[in-house]
Every structure is written in C-alpha cells, then in structure tokens.
C-alpha cells in the first residue's frame, strides 16, 4: 500500500502549482506541473508493472 501513498503524496504536492498555473497564470508553476505529471506517469507505470508481475506469478 506504500505505492498508493506515494501517488497520493505526489498528487498533493502538485496541488499548489496547479492553482498557481491555472488561477494566477504562473508559467514556472506550469513547468513544475508538467514535471510532476511526468513523475506520476513513471510511478504509475512502475506500479502497473508490479501489479502485472504479481498477477502473472500467482501471488
């Protein structure tokens, strides 16, 4: 379940940058959002691979 916590923490850490970008038009915050979303994508792929491997191994 720690992987889920990692996803939650990452999403929550991006919240202020989302607000700064969308509400205030801060371009640097947009860059941070894109970087954070790339990290989220990578983490999601790692989790997906873990789940698939565990499913295939019969655990």
TrEMBL record:
It comes from the Bacteria. Pfam families: Hc1 (PF07432). InterPro entries: Hc1. One of its GO terms (molecular function) is structural constituent of chromatin. Might have a role analogous to that of eukaryotic histone proteins. Belongs to the histone H1/H5 family. HCT subfamily. This is Uncharacterized protein.
């Amino acid at each position: 379940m720690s992987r889920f916590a990692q996803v939650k923490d990452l999403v929550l850490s991006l919240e202020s940058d989302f607000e700064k970008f969308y509400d205030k038009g801060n371009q640097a915050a947009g860059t941070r959002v894109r970087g954070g979303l790339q990290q989220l994508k990578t983490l999601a792929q790692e989790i997906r691979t873990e789940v698939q491997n565990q499913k295939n191994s019969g655990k």
